[in-house]
Amino acid sequence: VVVVVCVLVKGFGILIGVVSSALFEPYDSSLSLHLSASAIQHPNATAFHCPKAISAFCTWDAVYFTGIATSGYETEQNFAFFPGFPMLLRLFSRLFIMDESLLNRIYGSEDATAAAVGSCYACFFGVVLNFLLFPIVVMLFFHVSMETLKDHRLSVISTFLFCINPAMPFFNAVYTETVFSLAIYAGLLLLLKFHQHLLASLVFACGSAIRSNGIVLAGFIAHHFLREHSVCGTFGVVATFLQCVLVVLPYMLLQSSATDLFCNTNASQSPEWCQHSSIYSHIQEKYWNVGFMKQYAIEQVPRVNACACIGCVGALLAQLLKHLFAFLFISMIRSQISFLHFQH
Questions:
Q1: What are the respective helix, strand and coil percentages of the chain, to the nearest 5?
Q2: What is the maximum span of the chain, computed from C-alpha positions, in angstroms?
Q3: Whether pLDDT at 48 is above 70
């Protein structure tokens, strides 16, 4: 029942996205700018416009995911996004596009129109893929809750709260939240219920191929080993260490491929990050100003104030609704008592 409710909630969220895209102009125009840039680079290409109902779910980071799925890692900036999800988009679209010539035009072609069509296809299939995987995520979340809470009622409540969490729009869009959650909960279930450390490590490795913070999933492997073994033998320690390395391996491979692509040239032409840091930390700092304690700055005060105002308004509305429901409930009880008294 909870799975059905969660799917309905997700479907309602997608419906809101489609309707709002028809009524309002998008706040983020990344996809249209991306397609416009392709048209400028290839002026003879035929113009193509992705339908609003699809492009509404393909903004912000989704533009990079669909771009990588269509054209690969073309720029330095693309390396902030890991290849697992774009590979899934590409493979999933191949299951439904049977026209081999169309596939060859969409993927790997320098034709701007084909690239635009490919991004739109990848966006559509991304929404479909996330929708189909979401019920599996919900079921995995419920079973992990059962393993940790040991309480059916609490597990149902926690699963329902998971389905209505404020991050649900990211689960609807062409983002990695759905597939990454699938990797997390599948790996945790393999650990907690079946005690399959190697399989869990492989699933967690898939998670770190999807998002950079997937490397912290290695902590679950180490924690579960320490919890199960009060006395740590040499073989167990080595095996656990190798399993943790397996989880981190996709991150290391992406950094290695970027180094091979950008740094194995003339030293004077190599990017500065080749000598001092990894490409991921360099890109996050250069393009998004992300780094340790970076957000604790005077310039961020207006944003904090804006969020605080929204939080205060939300808390006020919650209190008003609470008093309104209490008033309606008391009024209903009073009316029932009056009705019974009148009957007597």
A1: 75, 0, 25
A2: 98
A3: no
